[in-house]
């Protein structure tokens, strides 16, 4: 795999690191199966691309995309908390509605950014090529986002949010407004996903109505791979694992699709994703089996030595 292809994989992996942070918040912290991300990811791209074409500053357009994503997450949580619609169904309803919303925002199936300024063109320096500056800028964005998420989790509100996801009944008994925290938590989760969508549109030169297909699968794959590679009970390490998992996921995909001897093509992307997720899910179970087997071997060995 060439240097440009490797950096391209890292670039996309860093973008989906933001998605993984959002998915981790909804699935692991709030225990809320949120499929809204398949709609909020292209929502972020659509809002950012449309506003940039309209003359907005790319940074302001990206911030507006974050606000739009937060609104999408809020709607999903509102359907669940206020209208008592099942979590999964509420997120599916919002995801379906966002398809039409994204078409309305762009006015067409896609919005090009070929000749428009972007966050990356503004932050480029020294005449370096895009395939070098983009990963560097994205690394800075992801590091800042990770640190802010860590600070939020360590705050009083973050602790209350974690309690809401862990044991909502106990949290309510302690006076925690679990409904409000669910609204805010899903808003934050989808804001991160929408920022990823906005940055993805700016790296790819435009937004497309279908760019969000499979986003939830990629986010879950990143979280699962990260937890397998970097297991930890610390939330700071867990958020780092999300980013590492997203980058590794994209690198694995690039390696698989660029390995001529395997014979895979671009249309095999979903197949490769399914295989990677299956392997990542199998590894923890096999690790536990190996640990139990090793423990049994040691116990048997100690018993024999004691008998002597």
Architecture blueprint of SSEs:
Layout: H1 3-29, H2 37-53, H3 58-81, H4 87-106, E1 110-112, H5 119-123, H6 130-154, H7 156-166, H8 168-173, H9 178-204, E2 206-208, H10 215-229, H11 235-257, H12 269-307
Antiparallel strand pairs: 1-2
Helix pairs in contact: 1-6, 1-9, 1-10, 1-11, 2-3, 2-4, 2-9, 3-4, 3-9, 6-7, 6-11, 7-9, 10-11, 10-12, 11-12
Description:
With 308 residues, this protein is mainly alpha-helical. The chain is built from twelve helices and two strands; from the N terminus they run H-H-H-H-E-H-H-H-H-H-E-H-H-H. It has helices at residues 3-29, 37-53, 58-81, 87-106, 119-123, 130-154, 156-166, 168-173, 178-204, 215-229, 235-257, 269-307; strands spanning 110-112, 206-208. It has a two-stranded antiparallel sheet. The mean pLDDT is 89.
**Contiguous runs where pLDDT drops below 50 for at least 5 residues:** none
Report the strand count.
2
The DSSP helix count reads: 12
- Mean pLDDT across every amino acid position: 89
Strand content: under 5%
Shape: globular
Helicity level, as a percent range?
over 70%
Along the chain, the helix and strand elements come as HHHHEHHHHHEHHH
The major sheet is characterized as: 2 strands, antiparallel
Task: Calculate the terminal CA-CA distance, rounded to whole Å.
Answer: 58 Å
């Amino acid at each position: 795999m060439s240097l440009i292809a490797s950096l391209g994989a890292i670039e996309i992996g860093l973008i989906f690191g933001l998605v993984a942070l959002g998915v981790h918040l909804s699935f692991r912290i709030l225990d809320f199966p949120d499929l809204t991300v398949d709609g909020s990811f292209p929502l972020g791209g659509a809002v950012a691309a449309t506003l940039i074409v309209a003359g907005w500053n790319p940074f302001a357009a990206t911030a507006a995309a974050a606000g739009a994503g937060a609104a999408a997450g809020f709607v999903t949580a509102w359907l669940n908390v206020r209208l008592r619609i099942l979590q999964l169904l509420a997120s599916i309803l919002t995801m379906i509605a966002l398809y039409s919303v994204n078409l309305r925002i762009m006015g067409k199936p896609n919005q090009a950014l070929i000749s428009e300024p972007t966050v990356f063109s503004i932050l480029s320096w020294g005449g370096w090529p895009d395939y070098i500056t983009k990963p560097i800028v994205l690394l800075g964005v992801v590091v800042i986002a990770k640190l802010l998420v860590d600070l939020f989790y360590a705050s009083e509100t973050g602790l209350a949010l974690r309690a809401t996801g862990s044991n909502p009944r106990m949290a309510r008994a302690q006076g925690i407004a679990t409904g409000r925290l669910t609204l805010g938590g899903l808003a934050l989760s989808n804001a991160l996903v929408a920022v990823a969508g906005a940055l993805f549109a700016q790296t790819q030169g435009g937004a497309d109505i279908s760019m969000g297909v499979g986003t939830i699968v990629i986010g879950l794959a990143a979280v699962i791979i990260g937890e397998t590679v970097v297991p930890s009970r610390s939330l700071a390490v867990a958020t780092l694992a999300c980013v590492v998992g997203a980058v590794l996921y994209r690198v694995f995909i690039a390696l698989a699709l660029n390995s001529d001897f395997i014979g895979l093509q671009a249309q095999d992307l979903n197949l490769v994703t399914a295989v990677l997720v299956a392997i990542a899910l199998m590894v923890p179970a096999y690790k536990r089996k190996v640990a139990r087997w090793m423990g049994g071997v040691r116990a048997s060995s100690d018993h024999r030595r004691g008998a002597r």
